[in-house]
Design brief:
single chain; about 350 residues; alpha/beta; Rossmann fold; 2 domains; six-stranded parallel sheet; 15 helices; 14 strands; about 15% strand; binds adenosine-5'-diphosphate; binds 3-phosphoglyceric acid; binds magnesium ion
Length: about 350
């Protein structure tokens, strides 16, 4: 059984709370999503220790330092924060135990230490020694068996944060009781994780609307000239099968630059919208085109408008680039649930067990 923070009498949790967050986004939307949990902890705990990673650094790299994130968080919480970059655990324990009540500590990027990724026992034990209980509020990294996600739970009472709980509830709703028609929409550059979800939902979803690199690959297999467009190099049996699957809907026109397909075209927007309007459940991950360029953002924005025009469907959206764009568009509050997960959301929806969630059981 997962221990949920929301169902725990937090007042009885004495001492220092350790919270695992995920600061691994260009903007601060994942950080903002963790604020309610941090405020709840801060109300009752004597002090708060925050752990996170950013990027995939090998050793110290300034661009991946969490110092700016600690400053941003301090602004959001309107609370002083002590940033610690040394991983000197004896000194840290001393500083935490002698700190004034309600102190907040943010540790430097855990992935600067190779023991984090390696789920090293002694590192996990050292992290655990900084507090009295642990809260996972980092759904986005819960598919990684790392020291601050999995290892640490062996040494402390461990709870699921408010945001992690919402992820489990909303994504489970898609897994277990999605109202039909269920339409899944996939785009983006990385097809691998998305293919795993399509595989799991192959018989359960009614339609798959495809854009991005995967669409290019499927179009190529059907004989369309995709020029030098982005596509998947290793075409496996499953992709071949998808190209002749009637439940897979591909774009019918494109916005190109030279021979490169960089977005779906207006007819495809209409086609996708005509399918989306009848859905009762919508799942979307991955942009339809090269959204970093204004002229190739149109197809994805059209998709957003189609999703929010369907006022009765339960809609779930995730993916790093996808959500960043959605937030920028100012339309994100019209989506039923925005997952903070990229790979984690896709693993969950592919029916895989997430080590960070399993560790809370
Ligand atoms: P997400 O982060 O939302 O999960 P991915 O990481 O898989 O999605 O891919 C996002 C990237 O895919 C974006 O940077 C976007 O520019 C790129 N992309 C989507 N379609 C195309 C395309 N047709 N050509 C080039 N890049 C594309
Ligand atoms: C993410 O951004 O998806 C998470 O922070 C996990 O990052 P990772 O793929 O580098 O483990
Ligand atoms: Mg991405």
């Amino acid at each position: 059984m997962i221990k949920y923070l929301s169902k725990t009498n937090v007042k009885n949790l004495k001492g220092v709370a350790i919270a695992r967050l995920d600061f691994n986004t260009e903007d601060d939307w994942r950080m903002k999503a963790a604020i309610p949990t941090l405020q709840l902890l801060l109300k009752h705990a004597r002090a708060l220790v925050i752990l996170s990673h950013k990027g995939r650094p090998l050793g110290f790299q300034k661009q991946f330092s969490l110092r700016p994130d600690a400053e941003k968080l301090s602004g959001l919480l309107k609370h002083d924060i002590t940033f610690d970059e040394k991983f000197n655990f004896d000194e840290l324990r001393r500083n935490i135990s002698t700190s004034p009540a309600k102190s907040i500590f943010v540790l430097e990027n855990l992935r600067f230490v190779s023991m984090e990724k390696g789920n090293d026992k002694s590192f996990a034990k050292n992290l655990a020694s900084l507090g009295d209980y642990f809260v996972n509020e980092a759904f986005a990294v819960s598919h990684r068996a790392e020291a601050s996600v999995v290892g640490i739970t062996k040494y402390l009472p461990s709870y699921a944060g408010l945001g992690l709980e919402k992820e489990i509830i909303n994504l489970s709703r898609v897994m277990e009781k999605a109202k039909k028609p269920l339409i899944m929409i996939f785009g983006g550059a990385k097809s691998g994780d998305k293919l795993a979800v399509i595989k799991f939902f192959r018989k359960k979803a009614d339609l798959f609307l495809i854009g991005g690199a995967l669409a290019n690959t499927l179009l190529y297999l059907k004989g369309t000239d995709i020029g030098t467009s982005l596509f998947d190099e290793d075409v496996n049996e499953m992709i071949k099968n998808l190209s002749s699957d009637e439940s897979v809907i591909l774009p019918v026109d494109f916005r190109r630059q030279g021979s490169k397909i960089l977005d779906i075209g207006p007819q495809s927007e209409k086609l996708f919208a005509s399918k989306i309007k009848d859905a009762k459940t919508i799942v979307w991950n991955g942009p339809m085109g090269l959204i970093e360029r204004e002229e190739f953002k149109k197809g994805t924005l059209g998709l957003v408008r189609a999703i929010i025009s369907n006022k009765t469907a339960f809609s779930v959206v995730g993916g790093g680039e996808t959500v960043t764009m959605l937030k920028e568009s100012g339309l994100s509050d019209k989506i039923s649930f925005i997952s903070t997960g990229g790979g984690a959301m896709l693993d969950f929806l592919a029916g895989k067990k997430l080590p960070g969630i399993e560790a809370l059981k």
